[in-house]
Amino acid sequence: MVVAPPTGRRSFLAGAAALLTGTAGCAGVVGRDRTTATPVSILAAGSLNNALENGLRSSVDTPVQIEAHGSAEVARLVAEGQKDPDVVSVADVALFDGPMRPDWYAEFATNSVVVAYNPDSNGGERIAAAGTDSWYRPLLDGDVELGRTDPDLDPLGYRALFVLELATDYYDTDRDLRDAIPSRDQIYPETQLVSQFETGSIDAAIAYRNMAVERGYDYVELPAAIDLSDPSYAEQYANATYELPSGKVVEGGLISYGATLRSQTSAAADVFQTHTTGPYLSEFGFVIPDDYPTYTGNVPSEIAN
User: Fold this and answer.
1) CB distance 287 to 254 below 8 Å
2) How far apart are CA 143 and CA 203, in angstroms?
3) Which residues contact 36 (CB under 8 A, 6 or more apart)?
4) What is the DSSP letter of 13?
5) Cα–Cα distance between 266 and 269 in angstroms, integer?
6) Chain-wide mean pLDDT for the chain?
7) In this structure, what is the dihedral angle of CA atoms 52, 53, 57, 58, given to the nearest 10 degrees?
8) Fewest CB within 10 angstroms: 50, 73, 92, 134, which?
9) 52 three-class SS
10) What is the pLDDT of residue 5?
11) Cα angle 88-93-99, degrees, rounded to a multiple of 5
12) What's the start-to-end Cα distance of the chain, in Å?
């Protein structure tokens, strides 16, 4: 299915410029108590950045300081002691089983992988015309400039490889799509990936659905058997794997965002609660299952209750 968002490709949410930097401070703090309060620091997955900046920030009374990177990089920075945030939020809970090993975490949102495209470019037109049944063919033919993220730094990067591997079997292609399509010159930071449409650098991107939805870009919806969103295919997803530079092997599975709280302050706890339960997540294209958030580990009673 080819999906065109109702607001048009260029109807960015406010603050989209912050995505081009990949990091953001606590600028724009408003409200009577925010001018003197100590900010709560959040180190988060790049795909969460826009939702945090333009959804969470306005939903809490405490100022927040947001920094976004690929989730594998986020986990590494914390595990190695280079960053000490109050809240850590990643796009793959597997990263909480190494390199980070928090005592507990909350799973709070899911997503799916899509192929976003620029309908104003020739390559984007080819992706749109190919649709769900054959989106991979223009990529094999070299007719499309593709963007993706670095699998060594970011779950979206290795999930793009999982999708290509699963698609090889799903479409019964003559060529191994995971070997034939990826190249190093396709890689961009997660916070800058889809914005490359504006520069003309790429025609299409393997992206999360929320990244296309929140920025108003068209996208091809992939079959559930390969888009990493359907619990009934979890066992099949797990056939695809990737080894991170640390030696940790991650496997395909349902996309699940997780967060942990590392600070004991009430302000940080309040921000964490809003981050993991707030309705803003749905507004920014994430999917919130009815039973979320779910908790793993020794969860503080004030969080779980």
Assistant:
1) no
2) 9
3) none
4) P
5) 5
6) 89
7) -110
8) 134
9) helix
10) 58
11) 70
12) 40
